Amino acid sequence: MANKVEVKELLDAGVHFGHLTRRWNPNMAPYIYMERNGIHIINLYKSAAKMQEAGEALAKIAASGRKILFVATKKQAKEIVAEQAEKANMPYITERWPGGMLTNFVTIRKAVKKMASIDRMKKDGTFNSLSKKERLQVDRLRAKLEKNLGSIADMSRLPAALFVVDTTREHIAIKEAQKLNIPIFAMVDTNSDPREVDYLIPSNDDASKSISKVVSYVADSIVEGLSERKSNKDAKKKEEKASKEGKEDKAPKVKKEKAEVPSKDAEDKKAMKEAKKDVKLESKSETLDKAKSSNEEE
């Protein structure tokens, strides 16, 4: 469950300031509270509700173990997004959006692998065998790849969702995500079209304080989802361990039957019985012999 959003905090951060009235998008009308000095004011109660909704959805995605790609190439959002995305351990794009980043992901992965192969060259000594000019070219290529794709080096498959700051500026990223049916979460100002995104947060996407407030809330929601995933994994391991131990305890224990060792008294009794039998047999045979001899004499 994502943390509750306080309207006062959003007000202090300047989230409510929209664009000039002449630059508005009519589809944003349900989220506009009023007009003041030629500027539209965003309804912060609706912003808070939408922020919480987006936070809960992102927490669920993070809890499932999938990645959320942060996208913000405007100057005032770059550092904020990079910092918060790293905190949440998620990939991000803060430089130019590489065309085909999502729709041609295989090619992008090849470029990332090229960066990894250059690193291997430096480790195994192959890089030192190159000429000075070749080394300079390889270094320049590595720096370019690092700048554009370094933050997505660990993203081995397409992201489960996109979080965008300023949908008008990042229209290419939005179009690619729409083609692949990837859910889009975004900060949407009064000059943008809210129909392009799945989870919108009506907010000022130009002021750094406003961006920081929204993006930090989103990152915290993702961290919460990740910690929930970890606790569920630990609980599952404990259950498996307990059930395993329970099965071992329930298993019938086979008693080893001890071989009966005859005692000394039992042996003596047996010998006495056999001796008595022998005596009886001898006396019986003697009686028969006497009877026989008396018959012969007669």
List the helices and strands and how they pair.
Layout: H1 7-12, E1 17-20, E2 32-36, E3 39-42, H2 44-63, E4 68-71, H3 75-87, E5 92-93, H4 105-124, H5 132-149, E6 161-165, H6 171-179, E7 184-188, E8 199-202, H7 208-250, H8 264-297
Parallel strand pairs: 4-5, 4-6, 6-7, 7-8
Antiparallel strand pairs: 1-3, 2-3
Pfam family, one: Ribosomal_S2
Family: Belongs to the universal ribosomal protein uS2 family.
GO biological process, one term: translation
Query: Uncertain regions: pLDDT < 50 for 5+ in a row?
Result: none
- Assign the structural class, choosing from mainly alpha, mainly beta, alpha/beta, alpha+beta, or little secondary structure: alpha/beta
C-alpha-based Rg, rounded? 42 Å
Beta-strand percentage?
5-15%
Q: What distance lies between the first and last C-alpha atoms, to the nearest angstrom? A: 124 Å
Oligomer: single chain
Helix content: 40-55%
CATH domain class of the largest domain: Alpha Beta
Assign the CATH superfamily of the largest domain.
Answer: Glucose-6-phosphate isomerase like protein, domain 1
Average pLDDT, to the nearest integer? 84
Could you say which overall geometry the principal axes of the C-alpha atoms support? flat
Helical stretch tally: 8
Keywords: Ribonucleoprotein, Ribosomal protein
Organism: Christiangramia aestuarii
Region (Disordered): 228-298
InterPro entries: Ribosomal_uS2, Ribosomal_uS2_bac/mit/plastid, Ribosomal_uS2_CS, Ribosomal_uS2_flav_dom_sf
